[in-house]
Amino acid sequence: MVGMKKLAVAVSNDNEKVSVQETITAISKSGFKNIFIQWYDKDWNFSQEEQVKLCRSLGLNIIFAHLGYQNINSIWLEGDEGDSLVDRYKNDIRKCKENDIPMVVMHLTSHFEAPMYNEIGLERLKKIIKFAQELGMKVAFENTKIKGYLEYVLDNIKDENVGICFDSGHCHVHFNDEFNFEKFKDRIFAVHLHDNDKSDDLHLMPFDGTIDWNKLLTDLKNAHYEACITLELCYRYDYLKISIEEFYKIGYERAKRVAELYEKV
């Protein structure tokens, strides 16, 4: 794997029929050395801080944290709820910094409808980004279900610590594979790579759905993507026929296959 990109995978709290401890342990045995965690501020039995501690004890390197997106649409609306999101995200970023996590991924919308992007939300995001910058943290905004928000934010915020997290599954099922990679050249900080058949955001392993991986990886390469090949997989559906350990071992082989294809395109 000389010259090949580092491989990473999500620690998913949505895996079915297994605990997150079992998920982390299976990942550590699969070959993956890098992971990202979900920092969702939910009342999980095994907290996000405990997940960080277990990952580190097993030698896993945390490349970023995916922050929660509860009520994120309110960031574009006047009122206290939108204002409170600034403090919430600042607190999340501060905690990630304290846990030596160098980057956070954020959504700009949730669901299929959201208030139109505007100066209200932009000013709030600028405060969050400035706080992250002061801590030496990067912020990557993810393409979700609605077009236009990434473009608006990155057109108006040029800070070097701000970029995007490209999600292949969202692009396939919600954007019909239409994405302006040229616009985001040199600003793709992270990826969520997974597959689907356009019926839903299924979080399948690469090559188990209908994404054209050769084209996608060519686009990423032309956009100068330089970080990890990061899979965002979920243990559910037909994958439940195999063990969680086998699931991540296969996932690791798929990640290697993606990395090998990336080198060739």
Give your account of this protein's structure.
It is built from 8 helices and 8 strands, in the order E-H-E-H-E-H-E-H-E-H-E-H-E-H-E-H. The model has no long low-confidence stretch (mean pLDDT 97). 41% of the residues are buried. Helix 1 packs across helix 8 and helix 3 packs parallel to helix 4. It has an 8-stranded parallel beta sheet with strand order 7-6-5-4-3-2-1-8. It is α/β, with parallel strands linked by helices and 265 residues long.
Explain briefly what this protein structure is.
By secondary structure, the protein is of the alpha/beta class. The chain has helices at residues 20-30, 48-57, 80-98, 119-134, 149-156, 168-174, 213-222, 244-264, and strands spanning 7-10, 34-39, 61-67, 103-106, 138-142, 162-167, 188-192, 229-231.
State the end-to-end distance: 16 Å
Structural class: alpha/beta
**Biggest sheet: strand arrangement:** 7-6-5-4-3-2-1-8
The count of DSSP E runs of length 2 or more, i.e. the number of strands, is 8
> How many helices in DSSP terms?
8
User: In sequence order, what are the helices and strands, one letter per element?
Assistant: EHEHEHEHEHEHEHEH
Low confidence ranges: none
Q: For the residues shown, what is the average pLDDT?
A: 97
Can you give the helix content as a percent range?
Answer: 25-40%
Q: What general outline do the C-alpha atoms trace?
A: globular
Beta-strand percentage range? 15-25%
Task: Specify the biggest β-sheet.
Answer: 8 strands, parallel
Task: Compute the CA-based radius of gyration.
Answer: 18 Å
